[in-house]
Write a structure and sequence with these properties.
With about 240 residues, the chain is mainly beta. Helices cover about 10% and strands about 35% of the residues. The strands form two sheets. Strands 1, 2, 3, 4, 5, 6, 7, 8, 9, 11 and 12 form an eleven-stranded mixed sheet that branches. A two-stranded antiparallel sheet has the order 10-13. The termini are close together.
């Protein structure tokens, strides 16, 4: 089965843009129960320069607490950036208690918004929060892709900022997975008004999407050749 059943434009490259609601048991020691996350990844990055081994490059990672407690993301972002090799920024999210939410006048359409939180100053005024991206989507009547497409893209090893790579496989074979294929509009904000590189900026209509719950395992950073060789085929199914 093809990963892109209807093909993919020859002059384009896939970009993964997503939001998530996380329950990371490693954060319980810090009394952080839930976190919201936003990500912009470029899959099929040729880290080994062999023209065939796929990796994902993280353009941006955002993390923040739920229910407006954005600063709960400070410690995880510092740990990820300085110790784990994953550059993470503190973010602010709408909705602030889930990965996405139905819009008020149409419960069949959903939205999510992510901004970077640069200067949190709750005492004297609002923070500086440049836009990162917006999502507006609904259930796809004619899906562009299959669940396997997203499994294959999401589970490519990630390139870290320390010369290593990391496997973070997501498994979508749980009883609570509830996969749904989506279609909608993605808006990426460039440096003029937002936080992303200019090359990615724009509004992209009729994009394929995927909503699901998954369980995840995080491995220690390792040499990129090793990370690629150890990708679990079950996570790609």
């Amino acid at each position: 089965m093809k990963l892109f059943p209807t093909g993919f434009p020859a002059d384009s490259h896939p970009v993964l843009v997503g939001t998530g609601y996380q329950n990371d048991i490693r954060m319980s020691k810090l009394q952080i129960k839930r976190l919201l996350a936003g990500n912009v990844y470029v899959p099929y990055t040729d880290r080994l320069r062999d023209g065939k081994t796929p990796f994902q490059y993280a353009v941006r990672n955002y993390i923040g607490g739920v229910n407006g407690e954005d600063l709960m993301g400070v410690v995880p972002s510092l740990v990820g950036t300085t110790l784990d090799g994953t550059t993470i920024f503190v973010g602010t999210f709408a909705p602030n208690n889930d990965a996405y939410a139905p819009i008020s006048d149409n419960p069949n359409e959903f939205t999510a918004q992510v901004k970077r939180l640069i200067v949190p100053n709750p005492a004297s005024g609002p923070a500086v929060t440049p836009e990162a991206f917006d999502l507006l989507f609904s259930t796809a009547s004619t899906p562009l892709y299959t669940p396997r497409t997203f499994h294959a893209l999401i589970n490519q090893p990630q390139i870290l900022n320390n010369g290593l790579c990391q496997r973070n496989p997501y498994y979508f074979n749980e009883t609570f997975t509830k996969e749904t294929l989506r279609s909608g509009t993605v808006t990426l904000y460039g440096p003029t008004a937002g936080d992303l590189p200019q090359k990615l900026a724009g509004r992209f209509f009729n994009q394929g999407g995927y909503s699901a719950s998954a369980s995840s395992l995080g491995y220690n950073p390792e040499e990129c050749t090793s990370a690629a060789a150890k990708v679990d085929p079950k996570a790609l199914q």
